[in-house]
Design brief:
Rossmann fold; 2 domains; seven-stranded mixed β-sheet
Length: about 375
Amino acid sequence: MLAKFAVTNFRGFDKRIEINLTRTRNYDFNTFAIKNNIVKNGILYGQNGCGKSNFSLAMFDIVYHLTQKFKSPTYLANYAYASGQSKLLTFEYTFIFDNQTVDYIYSKDSRGTLQEEKLIVENKQIFNRRMGTFEIDLSVFPMEEHIKQNLSKNANNVSIINFLLTSYPLNENNYLIKLQNFVNSMLWFRSLEEKEFIGLETNIYILDEYIIRNNLLKEFSHFLEKVSNQHFDFVTPNLGDKVLRVYIKGVPQVFNLIASTGTHSLTLLFFWIKHMNKSSFVFIDEFDAFYHFKLSFDVCKELFKQDCQLFLSSHNTFLMTNDLLRPDCNFILNNNEIKALCDSTDKELREGHNIEKLYRGGAFEI
């Protein structure tokens, strides 16, 4: 699981900003949201322009860095903070795999080129490459001196992680294999003016065609009715059909033409839920931008049933309730700092408290 993440000099963050998912409390309600003393499910709140989207994108830089998953061609636009173009961007990850702590830190220049990289496992440095030097624990990864010299220069900026993964036979319990599997299974997506995603999949899908080809129409119809109380009388597809149709007063209509913006967003959500059984860490940015507040709540209930570690960003404080999560799972981003609600007040927050009302009343110092 992801336990901590911090980034410096990325897009709108000139200073270091961190989220710590290990600062859990002893609440005895909604315990599903905590796993192995790490926040499994959370929501990130903040005002417009505070950096929620940019922070979530920073968390997924490691997918661009270590995998060959789908990459947005515009990702490197405005990569570094405006006045920090000459400075390095630093990404710091702490993972915990089967009680083993893995710290992975790397830095890139404003063009996205890898410059420095370090791996620490259980407080023991495995390797460190920086400023033309390279150190590695030879008892763990034995190598000849000339290879070390080449890695210290590393003119093609190959990740040391990827080099070790492809150069050494490792068993399935090795921390590098676990790191690789976790990163390969990370997923970020959103549905605003354009539908975007990072990680997990390498293919681009047409949603209607995906639902028809995989015989998911009944399940999709049930999903829409369950989370949004919308009943659609779908036309049974014929062999070769690639477009969903629904009956409107007995007349077939193209589903995409009559569906609302929110329903289109639910269609995308349905698609990704079908893939989340393969996911390790999911972040849905502005997940409820087109949802009614009650629909947002019901969708959260559905999402938090997933086994993966899953986080959302939202403006909707209706979700800031102990009926859904708990105070150590609700995070506020403000003034380059992320804090859980329980860390933002001296008050003892209990299950019966209306934390949205407390938040609106200014009870939290954020």
